[in-house]
């Protein structure tokens, strides 16, 4: 048997379009040259010829024909009398090419070569996968949920590569079912047990940035730039944007007509409230915008200490702080300043802490909130201060709905 068919040994390798043919041939050649070195102590006088398409491999041995009795190196030279037994027309000084029968290596050696080849192929595929995803860090991918575990979700991309979405990188409201498609950003590529592990994220600012880039053509075209994004995943996000074209309103472009551009992103992020803010180098104006939707009366800024005291009317304090303090926390992260909130009223006047009703939009349906606002109840305390019977009379809401809303509001104050 003069040749060996290696199709089974590297069929999977050949089908992987990410690995070129020349790499395949080089790997196979290296494996069998190692085999030759073990048998003959050297591979200098052997040619390994690989047909990657057919999966065929042939090995030829080259030796110079010399006069009988002048053979000094049996690996590189052959006596004339031996050469003419193979082909009578040979002459001294010519090269003799002989095809090596693979059976000469023995069954064990051939099996070992196939195992080595499979191992090398596996390593190469891992390197290709790692380089592919390292170059795509920060990009959004869509993958299918394959398995849901307590601490992570396993997804498969279109090429059946495994991707991991850890619990820490999931939005708290995320709930996945096997077979559904999930979008996430490629966060990093780790090496675990010599195997690349692709980590995805839905909580990183980069995920929101890429979603905005998809929905807002002006960002993709470079007319609008995202200066900074801060997030409390599933709760709220603040995005500072700037336009390089005076004719383009960056906030309006990002929000879209009647919120058409931002609504899709909000749904993707499980109703996360997104504040789009016009970036400015004016620190005071930037801080004021960062506390949206609250309106500031005035502030006292200490730029050296990165500290600012903000004064607001009493009805704006709950908006500035936000539910669970999320709004002011994100404003601090966005501006880099430590922000303290004070009421504008006279000292000594006590103000009851309140929360804007809109802050409960993740637990209370919007139409219910709108119905309360219709009768002038736009904060938590304004609802709780009225009895259930009074609320039932003044609104078109059912008693069960009113009781559910009051329970949600009361639980929030108990947490505080």
Automatic annotation (TrEMBL):
Q: Which Pfam families match?
A: KH_NusA_1st, KH_NusA_2nd, NusA_N
The cross-references to InterPro entries, in alphabetical order and at most eight, read: KH_dom-like_a/b, KH_NusA_2nd, KH_sf_prok-type, NA-bd_OB-fold, NusA_N_sf, S1_domain, TF_NusA, TF_NusA_bacterial
Q: Name one GO cellular component term.
A: cytosol
Which GO-annotated molecular functions does the record name?
DNA-binding transcription factor activity; RNA binding
CDD domains, alphabetically? KH-II_NusA_rpt1 (cd02134), KH-II_NusA_rpt2 (cd22529), S1_NusA (cd04455)
Q: Which residues form the S1 motif domain?
A: 136-203
State the SMART domains in the record.
Answer: S1 (SM00316)
Identify the PROSITE patterns for this entry.
Answer: KH_TYPE_1 (PS50084)
Signal sequence, renumbered to the chain = none
Entry keyword set: Cytoplasm, RNA-binding, Transcription, Transcription antitermination, Transcription regulation, Transcription termination
**Keyword flag Cytoplasm:** yes
Record flagged with keyword Chaperone: no
Q: Which Gene3D superfamilies match?
A: 3.30.300.20, Nucleic acid-binding proteins, NusA, N-terminal domain
Q: Name one GO biological process term.
A: transcription antitermination
The cellular location(s) given in this protein's UniProt record come to: Cytoplasm
- Which family does the record claim for this protein? Belongs to the NusA family.
Described function: Participates in both transcription termination and antitermination.
How is this protein organized at the quaternary level? Monomer. Binds directly to the core enzyme of the DNA-dependent RNA polymerase and to nascent RNA.
Q: What is this protein called?
A: Transcription termination/antitermination protein NusA
Q: Which organism is it from?
A: Rhizosphaericola mali
